[in-house]
Known about the structure:
Layout: E1 5-10, H1 15-24, E2 30-36, H2 59-62, E3 66-67, E4 78-81, H3 85-97, E5 101-104, H4 129-137, E6 142-145, H5 151-161, E7 166-175, H6 187-190, H7 202-213, E8 216-217, E9 222-223, E10 228-235, E11 242-250, H8 256-265, H9 269-272, E12 283-285, H10 294-297, E13 306-314, E14 318-325, H11 329-345
Parallel strand pairs: 1-2, 1-4, 2-3, 4-5, 5-6, 7-10, 12-13
Antiparallel strand pairs: 7-11, 8-9, 11-14, 13-14
Helix pairs in contact: 1-11, 5-7
The protein binds NADP nicotinamide-adenine-dinucleotide phosphate.
NADP nicotinamide-adenine-dinucleotide phosphate binds near residues 13, 14, 83, 181 and 332.
Amino acid sequence: xxxxxxxxxxxxxxxxxxxxxxxxxxxxxFELTWLAASERSAGKRYGEMPWRLAxxxxxxxxxxxxxxxxxxxxxxxxxxxxxDSSVAGDAETAFARAGRLVVSNARxxxxxxLVPLLIPEVNPDHTALxxxxxxxxxxxxxxxxxxxxSTVVIAMVLGALRQFHPTRVVVTTLQALSGAGYPGVASxxxxxxxxxxxxxxxxxxxxxxxxxxxxxxxxxxxKDAPFIVSATTTRVPVPDGHTAVMSIELADAPSLDEVxxxxxxxxxxxxxxxxxxxxxxxxxxxxxxDRPQPRLDVQVGRGMxxxxxxxxxxxxxxxxxxxLGHNVVRGAAGAxxxxxELLVARGIGLASSDGRRSGYATAEVRGA
Length: 368
Ligand SMILES: NC(=O)c1ccc[n+]([C@@H]2O[C@H](COP(=O)([O-])OP(=O)(O)OC[C@H]3O[C@@H](n4cnc5c(N)ncnc54)[C@H](OP(=O)(O)O)[C@@H]3O)[C@@H](O)[C@H]2O)c1
């Protein structure tokens, strides 16, 4: 059996961190060997921390000690970051300076022009920014980010419809409670309620990140896609699964059949390469009028597909639909894992701490 790449998790104790631990169990390419979180958790074994997902702490991780963020040199070559944004910026930079490849969920570096904001099905070519990043920031490692948990749902739909040239998009989200981390929204605010505001620049993230993701890679930067997005974000009492209600204007004015066909047939590099975390189909098109629903659909395909339904005419923008994605899997841990698998499959090397490439094995070498 080929040796697996050692990986670690920054922010391993949080909501996203626990999903990483869960998804990395028995991963064919990656072996989880190292964990870090805040001073509050450091020094404990992972199994001593409260486990918030179904079942118990996976046994394979229970004995791993939790480190602080300052033991940079002890970290393995590939790190998944699920850090709170209050600390993610500086910490991820420090690990990249120390030669680590940091595959992050946090918002801090997403809009850095030299950092790929990656969805492997939509903009795999943006991985070319990594070389520019190393030159521009002068570090041997790298930072790669995945989008905000609602943005990924919206961008995957627009990725499938890109051929029809989107010009304007209006989106309203209904976002799950797990999107706020743990303990998240106070129960008295959440139960039987809709909160019409999500802090932290949630709407601006959707409006800007989507354009970067669907943008065109030029020499050393991404030129934003030429459409505009207007977003309203709300919090609803759903455990997992962000719903996005979208109205879309398409310059090419395709028929509804053409739109449905483009959504249904959408497939991309992760599916062609059969990456371990790639869903068989990135988008699942529903024809029943009452789908998609978080309770019925969000766990399908281990949370990695985006669901689309209610595709119909919009009297103002031309087209409207409802999309749904698992915010902590496709919107966070699963997204980052797929990003890392894409980098490995493309043979994009890690650099060692002294700046030399470490001879990181490609997917072909691994027989993947
Ligand atoms: N939840 C989602 O759906 C989602 C989706 C996409 C992106 N994200 C992003 O992913 C990141 C994690 O989100 P989450 O929902 O998992 O949050 P969370 O449950 O609050 O977890 C935050 C993690 O950061 C660690 N942390 C906090 N302060 C720290 C410090 N001063 N030093 C070191 N570690 C510290 C925590 O460690 P302790 O347990 O020791 O405090 C914990 O492991 C955030 O940047 C978030 O915006 C989340």
